[in-house]
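In the design runs reported in the main text, the only information available to the sequence generator was the tokenized backbone. The following block is the verbatim input for one such run; it is reproduced so that readers can re-run the procedure and compare outputs position by position.
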């Protein structure tokens, strides 16, 4: 999975470089711009899946499942569960006496 909008690089060019170096690598892309007009160029370059921001975790999971299906990586007919969005990370505990942490 790679973002097409990388600093100093053209996304479709990087896709072509990756395809040249790793012809069998499954490629998935995402971008906040371009939309559907770039889709045919990505498909021609060998990208299996493309997401346009904004997208949800469910959208990403759907596309990963799609690519896994294309590649024959499904181990069973059971759906892959999608975990709930994690809550806010817990704050580190502060010592009872700040002088003790020094």
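Verbatim output:
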């Amino acid at each position: 999975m790679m973002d097409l909008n990388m600093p100093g690089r053209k996304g479709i060019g990087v896709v072509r470089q990756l395809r040249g170096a790793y012809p069998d690598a499954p490629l998935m892309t995402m971008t906040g711009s371009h939309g559907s007009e770039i889709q045919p160029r990505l498909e021609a370059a060998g990208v299996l899946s493309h997401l346009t921001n904004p997208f949800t975790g469910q959208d990403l999971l759907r596309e990963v499942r799609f690519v896994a299906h294309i590649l024959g990586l499904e181990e069973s007919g059971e759906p892959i569960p999608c975990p709930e969005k994690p809550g806010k990370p817990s704050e580190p505990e502060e010592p009872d006496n700040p002088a003790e942490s020094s």
